[in-house]
Amino acid sequence: MKLNTRANEKTEVECRVCRRSTNHRILASADENGSEWQAPDYEISWSSSHQIVQCLGCETISFRVCSESSEDNPIQIGPDEWVENIQVDVYPNPNEGRKSLADSHLFPSQVERIYNETVAALNNQQPVLCGIGIRALIETVTKEKNATSRDLFGKINDLVSMGVLTREGADILHKVRTLGNSAAHDVKPHTPQQLGLAMDVVEHLLQGVYILPHHATRTFT
User: Structural domain tally of the chain?
Assistant: First the structure.
């Protein structure tokens, strides 16, 4: 174990007081890594970092655990681009009591229903259902906007071609799509940190597709 090798580093963490991802300073850290043989020719390696972190905005202190394993599949963000799959847990849970968007009534009925059920799953600590709901939200939006590709990877890219989504936004949604796939196909529970950030991304999409255009039309016409 190595102590405080990451002390004073800055990192983004979901803050339960600021209600969003903010810059935090690592006050103290304890890092571990190791490996074990599952068969004569099959080795699993792992690493974890336990951190006390402080928000650089509101100064709230939290505890964070980052872990990864050679068993975790990388996340695809492009046709030939992958990133590491790092599991992050934050304590206390920054998503407790998360509220729905005030203008969610502006969503199409099917989108609104899935959105409300997904927020409820997040608040009730049902990570698998929440992950499935996040994926369903993205797919429902792409269908509602008439994306034509056969799979969700292509449909997200269609939104870029249609001017509904930026390239940067699509790259983030691909990470969220992979999270949803793991929940739906592998029944994999994701951490509150991952699910909270995924909901932030999806809510940003919903605001850009439905809420802001509605208010812009009413304000400037």
Answer: 2
- Same domain, yes or no: 116 and 206: yes
Q: In whole numbers, what is the pLDDT of the chain averaged over residues?
A: 85
% of the chain surpassing 70 pLDDT: 90
pLDDT for the residue 184? 67
* pTM, rounded to two decimals: 0.61
Confidence band, pLDDT 50/70/90 cuts, at residue 190: confident
Range of the domain at 203: 95-221
Pair 67, 18 in one domain: yes
The 10 Å Cβ neighbour count of residue 127 is 18
Within this chain, do residues 65 and 107 fall inside the same structural domain, yes or no? no
